[in-house]
Specification:
Strands 1, 2, 3, 4, 5 and 6 form a 6-stranded antiparallel sheet that branches. Strands 13-10-16-17 form a 4-stranded mixed sheet, with no helix packed on it. It folds into 3 domains: 10-131, no CATH class; 140-264, Immunoglobulin-like; 269-314. It has 2 helices and 17 strands. The protein starts with 9 loop residues before the first strand and ends with a helix. By secondary structure, it is of the alpha+beta class.
C-alpha cells in the first residue's frame, strides 16, 4: 500500500512540483532524474530529505529541504510521519537553477551540511555551492561505517584488512530516550548507486537529545546465496557523538569482527572545560581572600600583643 507523505507543494501563491525528466537526446540541456537525497540534518532520529522543485510557471527551480515531521492529516496516519517542505531557508533560496542537492559532512563533526549543484552562467556550465548547517541543539549522533574487510592479495598474517566501504550493510541500534522509553533506529549503507545517488560512504544516525549510551548496536552484511547462517554482530555501550569503524573480517565468522571507536569532540567539551576552569578560579579567589583576611587578623593580634607587652613593662 502506497502512503502519501508529501502533498503540500504550495508556498503562498506559488505552486511547486518535482522537475520532470526529459528524455530528449536532441536537447543540449542535461536532465536529471527525480531523486531524493536522505539525511538527518537535525539529528532527531528521523531521516529528512533534499529535493529539487520547480514552480509551475517554469521560471525557477530550487533545492528545498523536506523535514520529517509527525503526520497531521488522515492520508499518512498509518505511517505517522510525513515530509514538510522548508520554504523559508534564505541561504538555500538564494541558489537559483539548482539541479542536484545532497548532504555531506564537510567538517567531519557529525552534522550534515548541504552541497548544491546549479546551472552556471553559460550553457553546459555548472557551479557547486556548499552550505554549512548551523543547527545548534543538544542532540547527539553516532557515525558508523562498515568496511569490506578485504585485501588486494592474500592478507598477511596477524594483520586485519580494512578494505573500503561496501554497499549493502544494515545497521541498527537500540537505546533509551530522554523520557525513559525504548528507541530503535536503523539504516542501510550505500543502498543506491545510480541516478546521481551521491550517498555518503557512512551512516550518521541521529539520537535526538538522549545522551545515553547505545545499549546495542547491530551490524549485518549480505551473505552469499545458499548460505543459511546470518552474518551479524552486536556491540554494546557505544558512546554518543562517536564514529564506529566496523571491519567484518572474516566475513563468515561474525564473532571475529572488530570495531574501532573514535570520539568526536564537540563544543560541549570546550564549554565544560571553561566552566570547570572558571569554578576553580572562583574557588581559588575565595580562598585567597579568606587567607588575606586571616593574615590581616593575625597581624592585628600580634600588634595588640606587642602593645600590651610594652604597657606591662612600663
Amino acid at each position: 500500500q502506497w502512503i502519501p507523505v508529501l502533498q503540500d507543494f504550495r508556498n503562498k501563491d506559488t505552486l511547486w512540483g518535482f522537475v520532470p525528466y526529459q528524455n530528449d537526446k536532441s536537447s543540449t540541456e542535461i536532465s536529471f532524474p527525480i531523486t531524493l537525497h536522505i539525511g538527518d540534518y537535525n539529528m532527531d532520529g528521523y531521516p529528512d530529505a533534499l529535493a529539487i522543485l520547480m514552480n509551475t510557471s517554469g521560471s525557477n527551480q530550487q533545492a528545498f529541504l523536506l523535514e520529517n515531521v509527525p503526520c497531521n492529516n488522515v492520508s499518512c496516519k498509518s505511517a505517522r510521519r510525513m515530509f514538510k517542505v522548508f520554504w523559508e531557508l534564505s541561504d538555500l533560496n538564494q541558489i537559483k537553477d539548482a539541479v542536484v542537492a545532497t548532504f555531506f559532512d564537510i567538517y567531519e563533526d557529525g552534522i550534515l551540511d548541504i552541497i548544491v549543484l546549479s546551472k552556471g552562467y553559460s550553457n553546459g556550465d555548472f557551479a557547486i555551492h556548499t552550505l554549512k548547517n548551523n543547527f545548534e541543539a543538544d542532540a547527539y549522533f553516532v557515525k558508523v561505517i562498515v568496511l569490506s574487510g578485504l585485501c588486494s592479495n592474500d592478507c598477511p598474517r596477524k594483520i586485519t584488512p580494512f578494505g573500503v566501504n561496501q554497499p549493502g550493510p544494515y545497521i541498527k541500534y537500540t537505546t533509551v530516550d530522554a523520557n525513559g522509553y525504548l528507541k530503535n533506529g536503523s539504516a542501510g549503507q550505500l543502498s543506491q548507486s545510480a541516478h546521481f545517488a551521491l550517498q555518503l560512504p557512512y551512516n550518521v544516525l541521529g539520537l535526538g537529545r538522549s545522551a545515553n549510551f547505545l545499549d546495542h548496536l547491530y551490524v549485518g552484511i549480505p551473505r552469499p546465496s545458499g548460505e543459511k547462517s546470518i552474518r551479524k554482530q552486536e556491540w554494546t555501550a557505544i558512546i554518543p557523538n562517536s564514529q564506529l569503524i566496523v571491519i567484518p573480517y572474516p566475513h563468515n565468522v561474525p564473532r571475529s569482527w572488530s570495531a574501532k571507536l573514535y570520539l568526536t569532540p564537540s563544543n560541549i567539551v570546550l564549554l565544560t572545560a571553561i566552566a570547570l576552569i572558571g569554578v576553580c578560579v572562583f574557588i581559588l579567589a575565595i580562598i585567597g581572600i579568606l587567607h588575606w583576611q586571616e593574615k590581616k587578623a593575625d597581624d592585628r593580634e600580634k600588634r595588640q600583643e606587642a602593645h600590651r607587652f610594652h604597657f606591662d613593662a612600663m
